[in-house]
Design a protein that fits this description.
heterodimer, A: 334 residues, Rossmann fold, 11 helices, globular, B: 336 residues, eight-stranded mixed β-sheet, four-stranded antiparallel β-sheet, 23% strand
């Protein structure tokens, strides 16, 4: 079996917390022991609600943030402790696409300059070669070379996201971290960008880390999906397994909460109680126990460990949920 | 027949841009009955919010104008009302919930003051009684500790809580009509589910009419009984929810429904609508959707079709030459 492109091992990240002895600023526990591997050529989806640490995870991999403990391996190298200078050549292989296509392009620079920027940093191409590369890329993402002369404000949201994708592709990265790439776009445009991303993955043999809060978008594009809650991954499985047999109570609630655009199907919404607990003061035991309807005494006391309940299906829960008909099968097999 | 609450007739709203007026909303007519949830869907910039703000008369008076049309509330044209009369209706009879709960609350005022202010404005009651009513209304929207919430500032509450407070405020005077402009867009799905449940409950209990403005087809499919689809400032289709999703007539509605990723559908690529929404100042001449439409014919580019009843169905309307009422028999061939 091939080596993973990215391997995240038990990473912890906290923010804030004044340094001094007398400081009273509380520590924010953003990431509490996250581990996963991303295989070459796959799309790994990371889903969860706002504040669950999805984006922080993406930033840790790109070394835009450094972790408190744990290891991050990229392409068989441990990049956890690299300095900014050592990290620079590695960044050519990790590119990011950001959520806000309006905020991530410098409004005062022409598109061709924006796209050529990574080439300037990571390669020693001549200006003419760069220009040719930019024109090719603009065509690849469905724009025309003439667009290169324009400024970001002249483009619509979908077009800007295409420009962001072109910029990420310039240096032929091994991994693209897409942080909510289609969340700011309208549905009809969203479909265009998603289709483009899946096409490029085939053409360029890309590996994606796809971060999103939208389960239906992740379902379309991802091969494997990890569900995050309060800075931990509660469930990881292949797309099919996760959607057909979700085992974690949180995954189930999340799936049931997505409104279905079909009035003939009435969904049985599982309503979660209350709000997300604060990340400055994490619950004891299982992080989800405050909102879980299957919560038992053990969940409050003991934090569950990640375990594999079927091949490639990892879950962090003491009492995984099985449907009625599945339960019988399972009892027989045990 | 249900009592008609709101009847918008031929509304046209314009904005000033570079000394000329551009039309944001044109020929918009629809109605809302008591106790029904009507969905208004469309993409950004299609005029959903402008429509609702026109109804509430909350648009900036200097740079915008409602140049045509009527907004009948209980049969009375509220566009003709003066400021004072309008103030009485706003909040009391028609309330509005906005998209950004965090930005719609005053950050420097405690929640209690903000809700009590709204109650006192429309009711002749004592402060103590207003406080009691604020407590009750917060409790009715599912806030676990109303007294503590009343004493908090908006930044101390989460997004879902703030939206509950907004709904509580909108419901505090028991309006007959509630306009909800993307009420759950800024919220997470699990919180969205809570808020949608809450709004359905309000409709059941008080028989309120709700206009639900959203871009999320999933939300309208679950909540609404009737859907109005807007594109480029016009209504392009109106139909009961089941019929709209079962057989969308307008090519734009078809494209919109197809391009939504559906949970559990397991597809690797999505159908999409090519191109993007036209700019207000440079609208195409004929049908506004023609440049993106796969069925576009010459006639579409020359003359804008009217919103006409769909042949063979009493309560559907569509703005497309393919479904023009009198040529009803032809359309079955082009249906995809």
């Amino acid at each position: 079996m091939s080596e993973p492109v990215v391997s995240v091992k038990n990473v912890v990240k906290t923010f804030g917390g004044g340094k001094g002895f007398f400081s009273k600023k509380p520590l924010v526990h953003a990431i509490n022991g996250v581990s996963f591997d991303i295989m070459p050529g796959e799309t790994f989806g990371l889903v969860g609600e706002s504040g669950c640490g999805k984006s922080t995870t993406g930033r840790l991999i790109d070394h835009l943030l450094s972790s408190d403990s744990g290891e991050i391996w990229f392409d068989r190298k441990d990049i956890t402790k690299l300095t900014e200078n050592e990290m620079r050549p590695v960044r050519a292989d990790i590119q990011m696409i950001f959520q806000d296509p309006y905020g991530s392009l410098n409004p005062r620079r022409r598109i061709s300059d924006l796209i050529a920027e990574p080439l300037l940093i990571h390669t020693d191409m001549s200006e003419r070669e760069r220009q040719k590369e930019v024109n090719d890329l603009l065509r690849v993402v469905g724009l025309s070379p003439a667009h290169g002369e324009r400024y970001p404000h002249e483009f619509s949201g979908g077009q800007r996201q295409r420009i962001g994708i072109a910029r990420a592709l310039t240096v032929h990265p091994k991994l693209i971290i897409a942080d909510e790439p289609v969340s700011a776009l309208d549905v009809s445009i969203q479909a265009q960008v998603l289709n483009l991303m899946s096409k490029l993955q085939k053409d360029y043999n890309l590996t994606y880390l796809f971060i999103s809060h939208d389960l239906s978008v992740v379902e379309m594009i991802a091969d494997r999906i990890a569900v995050m809650y309060l800075g931990t991954i509660v469930e990881t499985a292949s797309k099919k397994e996760l959607f057909e047999h979700p085992r974690h109570p949180y995954t189930r609630a999340l799936l049931s909460a997505v409104p279905i655009p079909d009035p003939t199907k009435k969904s049985d919404r599982i309503l979660l109680k209350g709000d997300l607990p604060s990340t400055t003061n994490l619950p004891s035991g299982c992080l989800f126990h405050t909102r879980c309807r299957y919560c038992q005494e053990r969940c409050i006391r003991e934090r569950p460990k990640t375990r594999e309940i079927s091949k490639g299906h990892f879950i962090k829960c003491h009492y995984p949920v099985f449907d009625e008909d599945e339960k019988e099968e399972r009892d027989v097999s045990v | 027949m249900a009592e008609r609450l709101l009847d918008v007739k031929n509304l046209r709203t314009e904005f000033q841009r570079d000394k000329s007026w551009v039309t944001a909303v044109n020929e918009v007519s629809f109605h809302i009955d008591r106790g029904e949830i009507v969905g208004l869907v469309g993409e950004s910039g299609c005029g959903k919010s402008v429509t609702s703000l026109s109804v509430m008369r909350l648009l900036p008076p200097k740079t915008s104008r409602i140049s045509e049309g009527k907004v009948l509330f209980h049969g009375k044209d509220i566009l003709k009302d003066n400021k004072k009369e309008m103030k009485k209706i706003r909040g009391r009879e028609i309330s509005m919930i906005f998209q950004e709960p965090m930005n719609s609350l005053n950050p420097c005022m405690r929640i209690s003051k903000q809700i009590i202010e709204a109650i006192l404005l429309h009711n002749d009651i004592s402060k103590g009684e207003a406080h009691r009513r604020a407590f009750d209304v917060l409790k009715s929207v599912g806030i676990p500790d109303p007294e503590m919430t009343l004493n908090s500032y908006p930044h101390q509450l989460s997004g879902g809580m703030c939206q509950r407070v907004m709904i509580a405020m909108a419901m505090s005077c028991e309006p007959e009509l509630l306009i909800a402009d993307e009420p759950t867009t800024a919220l997470d799905v699990t919180i969205q589910a809570q808020i949608l449940e809450l709004m359905e409950g309000i409709k059941e209990k008080r028989n309120t009419g709700i206009l639900m403005i959203t871009h999320d087809l999933g939300v309208v499919a679950e909540m609404c009984s009737r859907i109005i689809v807007m594109y480029a400032g016009r209504i392009v289709e109106e139909a009961p929810v089941k019929e709209l999703f079962a057989s969308p007539k307008h090519p734009y509605t078809q494209g919109l429904i197809e391009s939504v990723p559906k949970l559990g559908s397991d597809v690797s690529s999505l159908p999409f609508i090519p191109g993007s929404v036209p700019d207000l100042a440079s609208m195409p001449k004929g049908c506004k959707f023609a440049p993106r439409c796969k069925y576009a014919m010459d006639i579409c580019r020359q003359k804008e079709p009217d919103l006409t009843p769909v042949y063979g169905s009493g309560n559907r309307r569509c703005r497309c030459v393919l479904h023009d009422g009198d040529k009803g028999d032809k359309k079955e061939e082009v249906k995809v």
